Amino acid sequence: MLPSDGPASLTGVGLNCKDPATHSPPVGSPARAVSAAYAHPHVERELHMPVAIIGAGSWGTTVAAIAATHGPTVLWARRPELAQAIDAGHENPDYLAGQPLPETLHATSDLGEALDGADAVVMGVPSHGYRAVLTEAAALIGRDVPILSLSKGIEQETLMRMTEVTHDVLPDHPAGLIGVLSGPNLAKEVIAGQPAATVIAMTDDDAAQRLQQVFMTPTFRVYTNRDVIGCEAAGALKNVMAIAAGMAHGLGFGDNTLATLITRALAELTRLGEAMGGEPLTFAGLAGMGDLIATCMSSQSRNHRVGYGLGQGRKLDDIVNEMNMVAEGVKSTRGVLALAARHGVEMPIAEQVGKVLYEGKHPKIAVGELMTREAKSER
């Protein structure tokens, strides 16, 4: 339930909007709503679990802002000027301009400083840079420290998921402490305090439950799940489908088309995800269907925006060059198709997305070929 005095917002936790007479957030403000919600007995405010967030994109910054409401949190940015801007101005001007961040959140471009004393590490680095950054950080991460990935991609050279890359870089790290946070989580909505939910997938139940409390807020509900493979695979595969949905939107097709595409995309995603070792029910949950719907339907989705531009006849390079954030699906589609071939799984939507991205096929022709495939049973 939301507090009665309005929707909660993470922005109020930054202590930037206090009533000068009471030193409390003003009545009716988002910050007061958060304060009221924290009175709920099942929400622990002070956990004092130092957290390092590695990667200061929109989602990494949002997760850092959430963690900073519970305890010491350091956000690592690759560029010193961005780290300085976040630390001094309590705002990420490159990815979340105008959105206040908690004053308790510290930012740095020094990996050693970010990881010093961290009891949890969250990797918010895109898939193509994940291994390099983790390799640099490896010696600084304690063996008993849980590591969560936020990246929804596949390493192109190895076809590894990011948790597999983590195992590869840190072979002696306990497998149960390596997991993923995934769900229908559009950063701007989450950091604005709009109700949302996510999943922490990790096989060490105690660690997962501790992290659950670190990231739980009155407007951001966190579930746990032991199916790391399924949750992570779903997050990577849905980006490809979001490009397809964006193309349909850009071509001017309506809700029937989008509903058909999302439904069949879920079937493809589930087939490959199960073949990779994921559990069927995971793909009907937040990390599967939930994330797929949000990413396919929202213009905030970077992958949807790429597809939309392609549907309107724009060139891929032009679309990508004007974006200041990574659309994982542009690179991951090739990896997804390679995984599908490895496991012998048919993925007609992903195949057509690949032809549009890498072979210059027109999206309208791709849709036409999908619609004229041989008739068959839905199952």
Task: Please provide a written account of the structure.
This protein is α/β, with parallel strands linked by helices. It folds into 2 domains: 10-226, Rossmann fold (3-Layer(aba) Sandwich), CATH 3.40.50.720; 233-371, N-(1-d-carboxylethyl)-l-norvaline Dehydrogenase, domain 2 (Orthogonal Bundle). Helices cover 47% and strands 9% of the residues. The chain has helices at 30-37, 58-68, 80-89, 111-115, 127-137, 162-169, 187-191, 205-215, 228-250, 255-275, 286-297, 302-311, 316-321, 328-343, 348-359, 363-371; strands at 51-54, 73-76, 105-108, 120-123, 147-149, 178-182, 196-201, 220-225. Helix 6 links the parallel strand 5 and strand 6 (178-182). Helix 14 (328-343) crosses helix 15 (348-359). The radius of gyration is 21 Å and the shape is globular. 50% of the residues are buried.
Give the topology, please.
Elements: H1 30-37, E1 51-54, H2 58-68, E2 73-76, H3 80-89, E3 105-108, H4 111-115, E4 120-123, H5 127-137, E5 147-149, H6 162-169, E6 178-182, H7 187-191, E7 196-201, H8 205-215, E8 220-225, H9 228-250, H10 255-275, H11 286-297, H12 302-311, H13 316-321, H14 328-343, H15 348-359, H16 363-371
